[in-house]
């Protein structure tokens, strides 16, 4: 009897653990052919977002980065939801800091992250002109620490292996093989240590001499070895300024350049500032039939106002936020943006036979050529530097979602509108997904028709009552009752 009772107690503990902890869930985004898709609903996922690096990349230090302070995260996520975005890009983080609460808040808000693995700090980026001096174990350890920590968050959409590393003749002569090596190393590490496949890509400079040939080089494989190919390609483009058209901006040439690309392509930066406030008329084109069969959306550069004058908001020294006219214009366009569904994408692809089909993208493996225009690809990269890390992993805290309290969702910072008046919007994050041990919603996040992808993130009404709690399903409650009765019997 005592043995039976002990076994029942053990089973009850395990049952409760499963019933309570396995609840919080965010649908990961994955790559299928030339599109991002929600891994659960299988609907296409179109990026509608902003680039986010308050203070610039140089503001990342040993004690702070954009995701280390949950109070500033809450402040900015409120405004992300006001814009109606579903994705942010961050250029650099410190993997030795705690990012759990900020990532949990982003996930609760239905917002995904694309993260660069490099930083401007020493030993944390490639020297574009002499990459052999920086491609070493110290650098790779930093890269893998970022990958290891953020691979445990389901709302990590993907990683950038580099940003604008090739941007002139000299860097194009030396750096391409090293970028491809970093992509390979990251994919090897993810395969060995991550519970899911997380896409790895590259963000290209706005330079026509290198952008297209580099995309082909990073797409190609040797001996059908896909582990050296990028999973997506980001294009930094500032060519649509003010009131233009597909033709006058050259967007039609962009579509032509990538219509046969086998991976997802999107704008990793866009938003020309030659006309202020920025009009963002290119958004209508980007999410139109003329582009969405080829491009998977984009990220506006950038959220906070820095010295280069691309900001949507301006931060005061005390953390207060003032919305700029650019914010108002972007919100107007994003509010009017309908993201394409699978049916929309299929119809657009069928209407233009010159665009590579999803079926062909899935079946095509481009084999590397001997040369690519304007690129030096024959440099010898040191072998085996990533081997020990891929085999044994790195020493870093693994990210995980945490339970969120009611006050975590509300910002206490002052927010002012673009006229300098107190902002009239809600200062509380609308909870789209329940994170941690809270109960998830029936409707999965990340799908094209999800509120997180539209302009009105829905409030499920459970943010307060579920925060920090661990609800149990009716089936779980019945099971626990039966187990307790058996315990009383024995």
Automatic annotation (TrEMBL):
It is a lipid-anchor; GPI-anchor. Residues 1-24 form the signal peptide. GO terms for molecular function: 1,3-beta-glucanosyltransferase activity. The keyword Membrane applies. Its EC number is 2.4.1.-. It comes from the Eukaryota. Residues 437-471 are annotated as: Disordered. Keywords: Cell wall biogenesis/degradation, Disulfide bond, Glycoprotein, GPI-anchor, Lipoprotein, Membrane, Signal, Transferase. One of its GO terms (biological process) is fungal-type cell wall (1->3)-beta-D-glucan biosynthetic process. It is found in: Cell envelope; Cell membrane; Membrane. One of its GO terms (cellular component) is side of membrane. Residues 457-471 have a biased composition (Low complexity). Splits internally a 1,3-beta-glucan molecule and transfers the newly generated reducing end (the donor) to the non-reducing end of another 1,3-beta-glucan molecule (the acceptor) forming a 1,3-beta linkage, resulting in the elongation of 1,3-beta-glucan chains in the cell wall. Belongs to the glycosyl hydrolase 72 family. This is 1,3-beta-glucanosyltransferase.
């Amino acid at each position: 009897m005592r043995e039976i009772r002990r076994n029942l107690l053990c089973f009850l503990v395990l049952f409760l653990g499963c019933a309570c902890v396995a609840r919080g869930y965010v649908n990961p985004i994955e790559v299928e052919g030339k599109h991002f898709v929600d891994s659960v609903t299988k609907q296409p996922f179109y990026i509608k977002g902003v680039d986010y690096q308050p203070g610039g990349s140089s503001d990342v230090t040993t004690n702070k980065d954009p995701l280390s302070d949950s109070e500033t995260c809450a402040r900015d996520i409120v405004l992300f939801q006001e814009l109606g975005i579903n994705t942010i890009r961050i250029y650099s983080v410190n993997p030795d800091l705690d990012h759990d609460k900020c990532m949990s808040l982003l996930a609760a808000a239905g917002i995904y992250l694309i993260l660069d693995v490099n930083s401007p700090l020493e030993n944390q980026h490639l020297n574009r002109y002499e990459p052999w001096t920086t491609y070493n174990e110290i650098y790779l350890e930093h890269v893998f620490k970022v990958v290891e920590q953020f691979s445990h968050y389901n709302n990590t959409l993907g990683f950038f292996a580099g940003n604008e590393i090739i941007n002139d003749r000299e860097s194009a002569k030396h750096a391409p093989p090293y970028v491809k090596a970093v992509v390979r190393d990251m994919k090897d590490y993810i395969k060995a240590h991550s519970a899911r496949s997380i896409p790895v890509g590259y963000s290209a400079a706005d330079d026509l001499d290198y952008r297209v040939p580099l995309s082909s080089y990073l797409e190609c494989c040797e001996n059908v070895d896909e582990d050296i190919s990028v999973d997506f390609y980001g294009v930094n483009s500032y060519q649509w300024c003010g009131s233009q058209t597909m033709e006058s901006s050259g967007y039609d040439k962009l579509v032509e350049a990538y219509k046969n690309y086998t991976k997802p392509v999107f704008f990793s930066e866009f938003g020309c500032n030659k006309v202020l406030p920025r009009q963002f008329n290119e958004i209508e084109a980007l999410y139109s039939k003329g582009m969405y069969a080829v491009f998977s959306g984009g990220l506006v550069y950038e959220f906070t106002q820095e010295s280069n004058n691309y900001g949507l908001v301006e931060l005061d020294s005390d953390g207060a936020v003032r919305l700029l006219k650019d914010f108002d214009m972007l919100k107007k366009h994003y509010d009017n943006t309908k993201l394409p569904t699978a049916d929309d994408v299929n119809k657009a692809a069928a209407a233009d036979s010159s665009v590579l089909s999803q079926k062909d993208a899935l079946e095509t493996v481009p084999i590397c050529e001997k040369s690519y225009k304007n690129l030096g690809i024959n440099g010898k990269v040191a072998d085996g530097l990533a081997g020990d890390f891929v085999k044994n992993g790195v020493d870093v805290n693994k990210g995980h979602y945490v339970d969120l309290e009611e006050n975590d969702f509300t910002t206490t910072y002052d927010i002012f509108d673009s006229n300098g008046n107190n902002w009239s919007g809600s200062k509380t994050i609308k909870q789209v997904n329940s994170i941690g041990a809270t109960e998830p919603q029936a409707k999965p996040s990340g799908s094209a028709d999800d509120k997180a992808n539209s302009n009105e993130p829905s409030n499920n009404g459970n943010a307060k009552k579920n925060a920090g709690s661990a609800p149990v399903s009716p089936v779980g409650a019945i099971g626990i009752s039966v187990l307790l009765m058996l315990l009383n019997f024995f």
